């Protein structure tokens, strides 16, 4: 049987414990204020994975699966994320002006049924979000803003497709169909699509990938000259194109914040903004420039604060001359420093095992070790979900052991609403579990364990669990000690702790 003494914590920095050893009131400080946190032990870190629907890359595994099979596959991906102590997913809901949710604005995605516009018989998005939240995972809805279709034959599109109704919005380019970023109508449509999702679904974030103007391909020119003549206003073509993208980013940012202020908006840009040879402010690299070739100016988004976070896709190993991971991480850290924009690093898990430096199991773990030197780096996102599950070269096992052994709370982004949730009440042991009363507005609860009362109890070294708020909250303990529980809202603003000492026989 257990020898248990319950503790009632105040909302202040100190909680008082009744200890079984003395039967007297003992001081159990639970505040982490002023505590020095060793490198690599921060309790706040975004750990995410991208779930791509395009071409059935991650989910669903192929088109035409039954809803039950789609649900089963998805849940397995989420369970993999939870097993790895992840706390966020980025799921592609709009691969190419289509929808993996029920929409009056764009047709059903062909990657659900195999037929563009084909109704899958259910709306997946509420289930996708609910199951993520049930497991304590933040859900970011991932959109591609400008891709209209993977085929430039407009007549193949479903009736009512925006590109078919408004062919003047589109540009045919190297076999694909794109929306023209230079048209205000296009920006309005994309913003309307995203606002509709934010309004109707309980998403935690809106996410853009790195595709803006088309990547260099066959060398043909993107045919937007008519729009440039109409809207260019005397600017150079490149400056006009970058401004078009910046306008969309700002417009979407304003719409998201105006609809639900707690929904985050972020972008995962190509890993190189500009090279130092092109701009003294650029990185010491020699690769493609997102600024010059796809007209994506991440530094402008940082300066304007039109994004809450960035996830640069630094998909290269250490020591690669044209794009050295060791050169790019400090560059991005400096770019966001003091801005209030959170920085997470996009990791190329799909490259592991492909040869060169990627043939070494230690390469990716070394990336995360290097990240710890830069406090601006607040997490990592892995491409893609199927690779997290596949665990190439057992790299995920190493990451779990060396970097993700403990769970983590989400980073607090400066622009997001602040608050202090109510402190959990009724903390006690029951049947080998720590239980407490559910708190209104709590998304999850953090559980910390210390061997003795500790004023730094709620720092990352002591975090043992993040318990989702669904159902009756509980934590099954296997060892004794002083346990501290805090409530977390949807943004992981944290309450004061309530504490109890549990003594095992």
Structure explained in plain terms:
It contains 13 helices and 22 strands. It is globular, with a radius of gyration of 24 Å. The longest helix is centred in the middle third of the chain and has 23 residues, at 237-259. With 505 residues, it is α/β, with parallel strands linked by helices. The chain folds into 2 domains: 3-40 and 420-503, Immunoglobulin-like (Sandwich), CATH 2.60.40.10; 46-402, Glycosidases (TIM Barrel), CATH 3.20.20. The N and C termini lie close together (7 Å). The chain is 26% helix and 22% strand. Helix 1 (67-83) runs parallel beside helix 3 and helix 5 packs parallel to helix 7. The protein has helices spanning 67-83, 110-113, 124-134, 162-165, 184-200, 225-231, 237-259, 290-293, 298-304, 325-336, 363-371, 385-390, 395-402, and strands spanning 3-5, 7-9, 14-18, 25-29, 46-51, 88-94, 138-143, 147-149, 170-173, 176-179, 205-208, 264-267, 309-310, 342-347, 377-382, 425-430, 433-437, 444-450, 463-468, 474-476, 481-488, 498-503. The strands form 5 sheets. Strands 5-6-7-11-12-13-14-15 form an 8-stranded parallel barrel, surrounded by 4 helices. Strands 1-22-21-18-19 form a 5-stranded antiparallel beta sheet, with no helix packed on it.
């Amino acid at each position: 049987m257990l020898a248990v003494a319950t503790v009632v914590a105040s909302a202040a920095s100190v909680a008082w414990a009744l200890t079984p050893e003395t039967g007297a009131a003992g001081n159990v400080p639970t505040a982490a204020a002023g505590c020095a946190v060793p490198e690599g032990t921060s309790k706040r870190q975004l750990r995410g994975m991208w779930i791509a629907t395009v071409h059935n890359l991650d989910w669903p595994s192929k088109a035409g699966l039954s809803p039950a099979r789609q649900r089963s596959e998805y849940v397995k991906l989420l369970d993999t994320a939870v097993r790895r102590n992840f706390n966020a997913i980025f799921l592609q809901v709009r691969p190419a002006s289509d929808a993996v949710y029920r929409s009056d604005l764009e047709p059903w995605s062909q990657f659900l049924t195999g037929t563009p516009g084909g109704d899958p018989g259910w709306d997946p998005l509420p289930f996708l979000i609910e199951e993520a939240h049930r497991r304590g995972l933040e859900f970011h809805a991932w959109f591609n803003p400008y891709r209209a279709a993977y085929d430039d034959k407009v007549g193949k599109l479903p009736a009512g497709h925006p590109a078919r109704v408004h062919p003047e919005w589109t540009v045919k380019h190297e076999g694909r169909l794109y929306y023209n970023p230079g048209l205000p109508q296009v920006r309005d449509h994309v913003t309307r699509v995203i606002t509709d999702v934010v309004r109707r679904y309980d998403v935690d974030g809106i996410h853009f990938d790195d595709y803006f103007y088309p990547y260099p391909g066959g060398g043909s020119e993107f045919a937007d000259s008519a729009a440039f003549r109409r809207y260019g206003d005397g600017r150079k073509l490149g400056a006009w194109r970058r401004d078009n993208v910046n306008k969309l980013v700002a417009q979407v940012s304003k719409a998201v914040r105006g609809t639900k202020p707690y929904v985050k908006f972020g972008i995962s840009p190509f890993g190189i903004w500009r090279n130092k040879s092109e701009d003294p402010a650029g990185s010491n690299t020699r690769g493609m420039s997102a600024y010059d070739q796809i007209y994506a100016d991440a530094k402008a988004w940082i300066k304007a604060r039109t994004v809450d976070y960035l996830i640069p896709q630094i998909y290269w190993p250490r020591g690669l001359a044209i794009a050295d991971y060791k050169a790019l991480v400090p560059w991005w850290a400096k770019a966001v420093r003091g801005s209030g924009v959170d920085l997470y690093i996009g990791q190329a898990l799909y490259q592991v095992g492909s040869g060169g430096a990627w043939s070494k199991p230690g390469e990716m773990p070394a990336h995360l070790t290097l990240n710890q030197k830069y406090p601006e780096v607040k997490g990592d996102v892995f491409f893609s979900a199927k690779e997290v599950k596949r665990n190439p070269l057992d790299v995920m096992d190493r990451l779990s052991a060396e970097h993700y052994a403990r769970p983590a709370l989400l980073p607090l982004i400066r622009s997001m609403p602040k608050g202090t949730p109510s402190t959990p009440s009724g903390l006690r042991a029951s049947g080998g579990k720590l239980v407490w009363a559910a708190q209104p507005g709590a998304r999850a609860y953090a559980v910390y364990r210390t061997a003795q009362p500790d004023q730094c109890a709620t720092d990352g070294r002591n975090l043992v669990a993040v318990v989702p708020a669904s159902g009756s909250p509980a934590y099954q303990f296997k060892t004794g000690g002083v346990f501290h529980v805090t409530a977390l809202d949807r943004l992981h603003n944290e309450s004061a702790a309530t504490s109890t000492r549990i003594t095992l026989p």
